[in-house]
Specification:
The structure holds two protein chains of two kinds. By secondary structure, chain A is mainly α. In chain A, about 70% of the residues lie in helices and about 0% in strands. In chain A, a hairpin with a 2-residue loop joins strand 1 and strand 2. In chain A, helix 2 runs antiparallel to helix 4 and helix 3 crosses helix 7. In chain B, about 20% of the residues lie in helices and about 15% in strands. Chain B has a three-stranded mixed beta sheet. Classes of the chains: A mainly alpha, B alpha+beta.
């Protein structure tokens, strides 16, 4: 099946060329950071995690694309998703791969990473996060690959793969929960110290992950032979709608608790993010415009998703999804991690300014993730194309034919 | 007992800690200088950037936030608090989160250690520490020409990309215990329990105002014990202890009641940390 990845159209090769360009640039930037140290980033004593860990947080959510298709298909027998579960799973592989790369580039001494295995500590949520992320990536890779192989050969999916599929469903919930626990268990960080953190992670993940997947599928409809039925996509849009409403609802719950209780520590980060904080005559609020944009976009998305005409419109939905991705990225990929550090527990304010090497490395990692997803998708679509040319429809391919409405 | 390399069973427990009298502190910063020299802390070209420099001991400036006639200022030296943590002894915020046991709590001494060669620089502990007592080596450590001659051979220099923090001058503890064991083996002393003057941190010795008292919080003969249990009974406070329950081993004493609230963002803000400090 791997041969599918090295045969492609001009467009495919140009796309790979761009990705390798991004990866190469990121790699050079990483060499620079590796030689000079993390001092080349914008991080400091007070903002000890920056854009890298923020991206990890966001991309864990993107990995939810897998489970949001697998769960309805395997647990609720929602047949329409049969054809696209593999795309969800492969995207989860790419997303988790990026998560792990972002942890790697964030380490001060990456050469010692093996210490995590040599001296593991079950007390540390980071240790468990590494475990759940790696296992989830492995699960999705094995499941996606095996299902595709069976489809190609016309075999029935073996039992052990079925078992893995059922394991992967609760496992998907674990990656969001454990990543939320990274933050939610720290004393002295009031913005993170909240029981609803894991639920917020799940809600935003179940909105953002499928949204990105849906956008990719819309692009594939244009750029490849892979044509998902509009009805299938409409089903996915419904899931996104519910998840997005839950996401905003959970956020409002946080606002209520912070401001009705009136506990200063709980309010301060909200003030910092949405109004800015005055401190010693300076005004700090570099994230204020972005956070308002995010909030407005979130409500806009909900309106655009809730009204059926707009949600079911092939013209409006892509725009809605782009807005949704932007809104959730600002919320989780910027505000949550960086905002949580401000003000620090001793009531001082330090802001964070991202540096050029950080941006280039971030782009490079996104490039690597996109490369992983591209190659896996190329293989999956290639196999499907081959099957369609051979009129031999067995098992899961049945839905493929069903969904293929020309 | 933590770690497998401690061959000698010590039959008693110690718990080292500090009492810092903020009324005596003048904010001179001698403790910071002494600490840097003692512990081989590298020097940055621009030491004014405190967000990137390393200060195991840092003096904060607090004010009551009131206008002129009532303006009041207090200096607050902040080493590592060596939290005991909650709910169980030895679960300080940083020790709990370290994924590679590169920082550990010693039940023998109550000191939170940092294993420099094991740390891989994920900085989770920095996010977890409510006191900002943990510092990351953003660059390779450097000392101005000639200053390498002054480095202490007892303290290992740290490399770039790892986290470090105050160790309560643990090398001094080791030196004192070596001596004590030797003397005990020669019949020179009855037990190996350290006297107060045998183990003191560099900052406590350097303080010209005598604001910092260091010793064994479990030993009734040590001054810190007497200060907490008699002299300043119910008056000594620990930063963020009431709201976070971290059980730090650094106690503060101040005659001004706004000081305690100044460093806790759970309580109503009567005062704030002020710009300046070291």
């Amino acid at each position: 099946m791997l041969d599918k990845a090295i045969k492609g159209s001009k467009l495919y090769w140009w796309w790979l060329f761009i990705l390798f360009g991004a990866i190469g640039t990121g790699f050079l930037a990483y060499l620079y950071q590796f030689t000079h140290g993390l001092g080349e980033t914008g991080m400091s004593r007070d903002i000890s995690w920056g854009i890298y860990i923020s991206q990890l947080t966001y991309l864990v959510g993107v990995a939810a694309s897998g489970v949001m298709l697998v769960l309805p298909y395997y647990l609720h027998n929602h047949k329409a998703f049969g054809k696209i579960t593999i795309l969800g799973e492969f995207m989860a592989v790419g997303a988790v791969f990026m998560c792990l790369m972002f942890v790697l580039v964030d380490l001060g001494q990456p050469m010692r990473m093996f210490n995590l295995v040599l001296h593991p500590s079950p007390n540390s949520v980071l240790f468990w996060d590494a475990v759940v992320l790696n296992v989830y990536m492995g699960l999705n890779l094995v499941i996606g690959w095996m299902v595709l192989q069976c489809e190609k050969k016309g075999d029935v999916v073996p039992k052990w793969v079925k078992v893995l599929i059922y394991i992967s469903i609760p496992w998907a919930f674990s990656i969001h929960t454990v990543t939320a626990f990274l933050y939610a268990g720290l004393p002295g960080r009031h913005f993170w110290l909240t029981a609803i953190m894991a639920a917020r992670f799940l809600a935003s993940a179940f909105a953002a992950g499928p949204a990105i997947l849906l956008l990719i599928m819309l692009a594939l409809r244009k750029a490849s032979s892979f044509h998902v039925a509009w009805d299938t996509l409409k089903g996915l849009a419904k899931i996104i709608t519910y998840a997005m409403i839950a996401n905003v609802f959970f956020f409002l719950l946080e606002v209520f608790t912070a401001f009705y209780s009136g506990i200063p520590g709980h309010q301060e980060t909200f003030y910092y993010l949405f109004t800015g904080l005055s401190h010693h005559g300076h005004w700090y609020g570099q994230l204020v415009p972005a956070m308002w944009v995010s909030l407005i976009l979130m409500f806009t998305t909900i309106v655009l998703l809730v009204v059926p005409q707009w949600r079911n419109s092939e013209k409006v939905l892509p725009v809605t999804l782009v807005i949704l991705v932007a809104a959730t990225w600002i919320d989780k990929g910027l505000g949550l991690v960086i905002g949580g550090f401000i003000p620090n527990p001793l009531n001082e304010i330090t802001e964070y300014a991202v540096t050029l090497p950080e941006i280039l490395i971030t782009i490079g990692v996104y490039g690597m993730g996109a490369l992983v997803v591209t190659l896996l998708y190329k293989i999956a679509i290639g196999v499907r194309e081959e099957l369609e040319n051979k009129p031999r429809i067995i098992g899961a391919a049945e839905h493929a034919a069903h969904g293929h409405a020309h | 007992m933590s770690g497998g390399k401690e061959h000698v069973e010590i039959p008693y427990q110690t718990k080292f800690g500090m009492v810092i009298n903020l009324d005596k502190c003048t904010g001179c910063g001698a403790c910071m200088v002494a600490c840097m020299a003692e512990n081989n802390v590298p020097v940055r070209y621009d030491e004014s950037d405190k967000l990137r420099s390393i200060t195991w001991m840092r003096v904060y400036k607090l004010t009551n936030g009131k206008p002129f006639p009532e303006t009041d200022v207090c200096w607050l030296p902040r080493p590592c608090m060596h939290c005991e943590g909650n709910p169980a002894h030895g679960f300080s915020p940083c020790v709990s989160v370290c994924p590679a046991v590169a920082t550990d709590y010693s039940r023998q001494t109550g000191i939170v250690s940092q294993i420099y060669t094991r740390c891989f620089g994920c900085r989770y502990c920095m996010g977890a520490c409510p006191y900002k007592a943990r510092y990351f080596n953003w660059w390779d450590p450097k000392w101005p020409d000639g200053m390498k001659q002054y480095l202490s051979p007892d303290v290992s220099c740290r490399m770039r990309g790892i986290v470090e923090k105050c160790s309560f001058c643990f090398h001094r503890y080791q030196r004192a215990m070596d001596k004590s064991f030797y003397q005990a083996s020669q019949g020179g002393r009855e037990d190996t329990r350290l006297l107060e003057e045998e183990y003191q941190t560099a900052c406590a010795q350097a303080c010209p105002a005598g604001a910092i008292t260091f010793g064994d919080l479990l030993n009734p003969e040590h001054t810190v014990y007497k200060l907490i249990h008699a002299t300043y009974k119910d008056k000594a406070f620990r930063i963020l202890e009431k709201t976070l329950g971290t059980r730090p081993k650094v106690y503060y004493v101040s005659s001004k009641d706004w000081v305690e609230a100044a460093a806790d963002n759970h309580t109503k803000k009567v005062a704030k940390a002020a710009p300046g400090g070291h």
